[in-house]
Amino acid sequence: MLHVDNVSCLRGERRLITALSFTVQRGRLLAVTGENGSGKTSLLRMLCGLLPAEQGRILWYGEDVRACKERYLASLIYIGHLNSLKDDLTPVENVTISARLAGEEISEGKTCEALEAVGLARPIHRLPTRVLSQGQKRRVSLARLWLSQRSLWILDEPFAALDASATRLLMQQLRSHLNTGGIVIAATHQEIDVGADCLDQLRLAG
Amino acid sequence: MSQPGMLAALREIIRRDLLLALRRRSDVLTTVMFFILVASLFPLGVGPEPAVLRTIAPGVLWVAALLSCLLSLSRLFTADYVDGVLEQMLLIPQPLSVLVIGKVTAHWLISGLPVVLLSPLLGLQFGLSGEVLGILTLSLLLGTPTLSFIGAIGAALTLGVRGSSVLIALLVLPLFIPVLIFGAGAVTSSASGIGAGAHLSLLGAGLLLAVVLSPWATATSLRIALE
């Protein structure tokens, strides 16, 4: 369970978020919506610890994330609006290295399976990432979700650049994660179809 | 935090950076070619007088090594910053300083080690004796990793800043000066028969200090840059 308690965020001179509180239970997806510049990305970065909150605290199963930082980071996966891929590496290398750096012992075979699960055929796996389209790069980035055992997924515009089939695959993966008790927090402009019974909405006014 | 996890992350980041360097050979070659060219142009410009060449050799070779290190520093974190990989590194449940050590080690293997290995060959152009060439190599072996560790702080502090290459130079060059003095001093002392022990000891102490302090300072600067 993730609980955000009275959190505020200041970017430069501008107050983006004021005294925000919410709770996301296991098996729930929180869709964060709002206009451009309303603070969606800042909120997600705060939840990851990439951006310090001006005030308030974030609790992970009742414990302040600053006090259990290592355990909290080992529980979360963050996919930002950048794909975090190296153009000179292949998709297999990108995903495998990224997972290994995060402390997950992943074989290249497993990575190939994950890439196939996001709809990338085998011949693409060994190409330099620079030759892939934006949509294919996004799929490579999202393949980490298929490999990860982590319970908290924080996703910034996960559907950006995805076509209909990739969107459908990602929705299925989100549902599967929620069914196993996972938590998803996603900033998105797209309607998320994971079922009304496990969907919460948070609209940021900016 | 587990020690095997830290070592695995360290090994993985070094392996990754070496793999990337292998895919972008031009970046590596630029640094090495710069060192070779600068060190080779001096004998041509100064003239073939052996005594003059032997006198200027320590300073020229050390300044060339220092500038070639500086040339590659701006690339240390920039690519990872631009494509979002650095942001992911901050979310790894290992201390960021461990990843910094990995990145600096890879930077030294790519840009510092070739300089160390080439230095005896370039030293021959200046008429240095075998013993002095050995001291030159040893001084660069101790000094160039120190330059990489110190340079990493500058690279992290100027991350995302326009004109960062010039800023890095302004920030780190004053900190490079002791390394340059002791490095070139070791070679000069050896050439004049005094012995390079004291200078080499100071270079070693500088390296230890840099290994301990730089990863922490660099990691802190990276966190600030990414906020």
Describe the fold and architecture.
The complex is a heterodimer of chains A (206) and B (227). In chain A, a hairpin with a 2-residue loop joins strand 4 and strand 5. By secondary structure, chain A is α/β, with parallel strands linked by helices. In chain A, strands 6-7-8-3-9 form a 5-stranded parallel β-sheet, with helices on both faces. Chain A has 7 helices and 9 strands. Chain B has 9 helices and no strands. Chain B is 86% helix and 0% strand. Chain B has one domain.
Question: Layout of SSEs?
Answer:
The complex is a heterodimer of chains A (206) and B (227).
Chain A: E1 2-11, E2 14-24, E3 29-34, H1 40-48, E4 55-60, E5 63-64, H2 69-73, E6 76-79, H3 91-101, H4 108-117, H5 122-125, H6 134-147, E7 152-156, H7 164-179, E8 183-187, E9 199-204
Parallel strand pairs in A: 3-8, 3-9, 6-7, 7-8
Antiparallel strand pairs in A: 1-2, 1-4, 4-5
Chain B: H1 3-23, H2 25-46, H3 50-73, H4 75-82, H5 85-89, H6 96-124, H7 130-157, H8 164-191, H9 197-226
Helix pairs in contact in B: 1-6, 2-3, 2-6, 3-6, 3-7, 3-8, 6-7, 6-9, 7-8, 7-9, 8-9
Class computed from helices, strands and strand pairing of chain A: alpha/beta
Reading the helices and strands of chain B in chain order gives: HHHHHHHHH
Helix count, DSSP H or I runs of 4 or more residues of chain B = 9
Mean pLDDT across all amino acids of chain A: 92
DSSP helix fraction of chain A: 25-40%
| Oligomeric state, counting identical vs distinct chains | heterodimer
Q: Compute the number of helices of chain A.
A: 7
Task: Give the overall shape of chain A.
Answer: globular
Percent of sequence in beta strands of chain B: under 5%
**What best-fitting shape of chain B do the alpha-carbon axes yield?**
elongated
Please identify the structural class of chain B as seen in this structure.
Answer: mainly alpha
Poorly predicted parts of chain A: none
* Gap between N and C termini of chain B: 24 Å
Mean pLDDT of chain B: 93
Q: Write the H/E string of chain A, N to C.
A: EEEHEEHEHHHHEHEE
Let me know the largest β-sheet of chain A. Answer: 5 strands, parallel
Q: Report helical residue fraction of chain B.
A: over 70%
The strand line-up of the biggest sheet of chain A is: 6-7-8-3-9
Q: For the largest interface in this structure, which chains are involved and how many residues does each contribute?
A: A-B, 28 and 27 residues
